[in-house]
User: What shape does this take?
Amino acid sequence: MDKKREMRKASPKEERMKRIYACIGIFVIILLLNLCSSIYVAHFQTDMNQAFEEIGTQLHARHWTAAREKAKRCTAAFRGYTAFLSIFIRRDYLAALDTTLCAMQCYAAQSNGAEALAELSRAGSQLDAICGLFFRVL
Assistant: This one.
């Protein structure tokens, strides 16, 4: 019986190989998570930039109701992304963008195009800063 137990024990080389395989597995998982989160944030940035362009076009054309509705949808979409983004980005940056989107929505509802465009510009800058921070962390 002692011989069987001795034969079942892994050699030191096998133990090292198990550790190496575990490290490689962990590295691959982290790499895949990094890739998936980068794609997710790039998709978020593209969606938001497209929405900002559409809102800007509607504001310049003085279509206040359409701009307000698009801003409402944009704010709702942003809030959907916030849960994931808050893992990597401080919540105060996300809250600042959310506040700016709400202000833009209010100015569009009041038919105040100049202020709405200013808030839209601020939202674009904040979006770029947030995505820049995310990609800098990675």
